[in-house]
Amino acid sequence: MKTLPKRRRRTKGSTVETKQRIVDAALAIAAAKGFEQATTAEIAQQAGVAEGSIYNYFRTKDDLLIHMVGQYASSFLRQLEDEVGEEQDALKKLERLISFHIRFFTQEGNIFQVIYGKTPGTRVRMARIIRVAIVPYVSILEGIIGEGIRQGKIRKLNPQVAASFLLGGMQLALLRRFFDLADYSPDDAIEHIREVYLHGLAAK
Amino acid sequence: MKTLPKRRRRTKGSTVETKQRIVDAALAIAAAKGFEQATTAEIAQQAGVAEGSIYNYFRTKDDLLIHMVGQYASSFLRQLEDEVGEEQDALKKLERLISFHIRFFTQEGNIFQVIYGKTPGTRVRMARIIRVAIVPYVSILEGIIGEGIRQGKIRKLNPQVAASFLLGGMQLALLRRFFDLADYSPDDAIEHIREVYLHGLAAK
Fold first, then answer.
1. A128 and A95 in a common domain
2. Measured between CB atoms, does B162 come within 8 Å of chain A?
3. Interchain contact, A165 vs B130, CB within 8 Å
4. Nearest beta carbon to residue A192 from set B95, B136, B158
5. Name one GO molecular function term (chains A, B) (predicted).
6. Chain B: nearest CA to A25, how far in angstroms?
7. Would an 8 Å CB–CB cutoff place A126 in contact with chain B?
8. Which residues of B143-170 are buried (b: 16+ CB within 10 A; e: fewer)?
9. Dist CA A134 CA A14 (whole Å)
10. Same domain for B24 and B108?
11. Is A28 helix (H, G, I), strand (E, B) or coil?
12. Mean pLDDT within A137-165
């Protein structure tokens, strides 16, 4: 590998630093106001660079946001690896992973804050969508799960958790197919979701 | 209940029709281009009304979108009710619900098309976010599930489906808490997700 001349190395070094300063600023602003509301003007100001110079590092505002999400995801996965890496038993690994995942995304600065913002004003749209689209559906699911518990067919679980889990799980299984990131068929999805979920729910 | 004079009733009737025409136009445009890309100018043109008159029916573009999502959700829930309503056994109800849900959202005009659009160009950002944030994580989950199948601890399931299901399920359980739409604690979420998922996954 060729070594770069000293001067070039220093320039490269501060380029990386500046890029990171921009990403950090974008993350902090998005965590406070939400993803959509973070403007390049504000990001530049917080990073201490000229607004135009953001475009020396990122082709578009979207590029910057994707880079930011990618860094966030890598950091999560590194910590997850530390958490579950030494465990040998796959079921125990998943057991630890579930705790780690829920705790990580309940902390300050979690990805929901980055996407929707901490301040109440900026998360209004998503809250309204959840209210009209998700709440009535999870209520129905909760009703069915509660019914099953009374019938003695479903183990005594928190119906709110169990209902949210089913709805979110189905939606991501669908979303992944929609973006061509999986090769299972709808029938496979149905069969395997039923197998995991219904077996998991069934009373002992 | 007082009846309205005839003239007023007719006006009210066409008001409802116009409002519905606007919602239908918004839905069609969002399904083709995606939610964010649907402009009021286009919606007005497709609905055959003046752009300004949209604001006689909806305070903001967001109001229109929320109304559209609400109608879409109601229609889904009516059909779901028809599908599972007569079933008495709660587990069988959920079994039917899972098929119905997956099939409904795999059809033409499903909510993913409404949110992200049918045309490849407009869903690029979400696809990139999924690629940097979700794909590496589900790959790890798939690896663990595959390991467990080889260890004989996990039943023979499609690891892609099982991994997507876990990730989506955890995220919605968290999202609902983030928007104050549930009263379970993070510890409750961990406990009940583990109980459903790990029990559902465990080899017989």
1. no
2. yes
3. no
4. B158
5. DNA-binding transcription factor activity
6. 19
7. yes
8. ebbbbbbeeebbbebbbbbbbbbbbbbb
9. 46
10. yes
11. helix
12. 94
